[in-house]
TrEMBL record:
Pathway annotation from the record: Amino-acid biosynthesis; L-leucine biosynthesis; L-leucine from 3-methyl-2-oxobutanoate: step 2/4
Protein name listed in UniProt: 3-isopropylmalate dehydratase large subunit
EC code: 4.2.1.33
HAMAP family hit by this protein: LeuC_type1
Known function: Catalyzes the isomerization between 2-isopropylmalate and 3-isopropylmalate, via the formation of 2-isopropylmaleate.
Record note on quaternary structure: Heterodimer of LeuC and LeuD.
Cofactor dependence: [4Fe-4S] cluster
Amino acid sequence: MTTPRTLFDRIWASHAVVERDDGYTLLYIDRHLMHDGSAGCFGLLHERGLPLRRPDRSFGTPDHFVASGGAGPLEPLRRRALEQMTDNAARHGFTMFDLGDARQGIAHVVGPEQGVTQPGLTMVCGDSHTSTHGALGALAFGIGQSEVAHVMATQCLWQRRPKSMRIRIEGRAPAGVVAKDMALALIARIGAGGATGHVIEYAGEAVRALTIEGRLTLCNMSIEAGARAGMVAPDEITIDYLRGRPYAPQGADLEKAEAHWRALVTDEGAVFDREVTLDAAALAPMVTWGVSPEDALPVDGRIPDPAAAADQAAGDGMRRTLDYMGLTPGEAIESIEVDRVFIGSCTNSRIEDLRAAALVAKGRKTVRPAWVVPGSGLVKRQAEAEGLDAVFREAGFEWREPGCSMCVGMNGDTGRPGERIASTTNRNFQGRQGQGVRTHLVSPAMAAAAAVEGRFTDVRRLLA
Ligand SMILES: CC(C)[C@H](C(=O)O)[C@@H](O)C(=O)O
Ligand code: SF4
């Protein structure tokens, strides 16, 4: 009998070109995604006079530097990065979803949307949130600049084999509890370093019940638990999602691919280095209160007291966090007022995210500045076809252009010092959304609720 294998084992084994004695494996890379930040690595290729090894397996789209307020003037550095990417697409012949093309958007939204992301593939991008693509059963991870250049030149990458971890989310999530809440509750439980060095496979009834969009959110945040990658084994939901997507296999190829995808499972009895189980029924909408994604609480929670911390160092750290965040121990999450709301990012800017936010916004009025930044031009178009833009606009939200925008502010979209932002993004680090800005991570519906109430509000009350 053969040893039971995990989904990860299968993909790793089928892509290993060489295994070295020192623990490194040369992996074949099926897809390389580029954004306007990582495409700068072409410089490293040009220095050596090398061609792009596989333009047909390379895809790019600008996202970090693009203006979200329409065709505003970009300052020279960002403009040059965007122009260079366009030039490199022409010079090397990779597929580029450029500005002005409705397919342009955040790389991690565009890949799945176009069917570039597929089960069983290895995928890399010079971006930490590449873990997102694992939602379709791909092994996808972020890489550094020299690694990007290595992939450009060779279509291969040296990697140490990561450890494996299975996270089962069992039972059914209550109404109003979504993938974002699962991700935050999980990170609160295992810690921001809880999955360091591991590839996570998400399993269990609540994960199976998620749509692809929910799985994308969940896998997106794997990196915030320290994981190398996150993945969900492909199933009928995955196959339905991929059917008809432009870069997915078609016709007879699709039939062959489907048979292959269905075999991408974790065998009964396969052993993981670590297993964690979460009960979905016990979850609530989550809000972060600190400067790490692990600082997350159910919306009915209260700000923790540093005096009750495990030790002196933890207490001191918590005091510094609360000082930065402008919060007091014991304060109820629902009493915290927000200054601004941001709905967007590769975590939560897909059509289902916008629908969930619009459901809350409908017939209400924002009492704070609130932005909606769709993840791609196609998401924007779809939302407009459904009238969601009108719902948002009538409620007072700003309806903006696709890109990373205020998730990281690399395009200049930042909050003001001291501002408190309810944000559907994945990182609440100090200064992430602008110097001195206080970020609270929430789901799209919770963000919309904060926009219309001016404070964190259990969205389940608004939807009741
Ligand atoms: C700019 C980019 C390399 C960075 C990342 O690696 O994730 C960004 O996307 C982020 O989310 O912080
Ligand atoms: S949306 Fe945010 S997290 Fe995602 S790639 Fe852009 S900056 Fe990074």
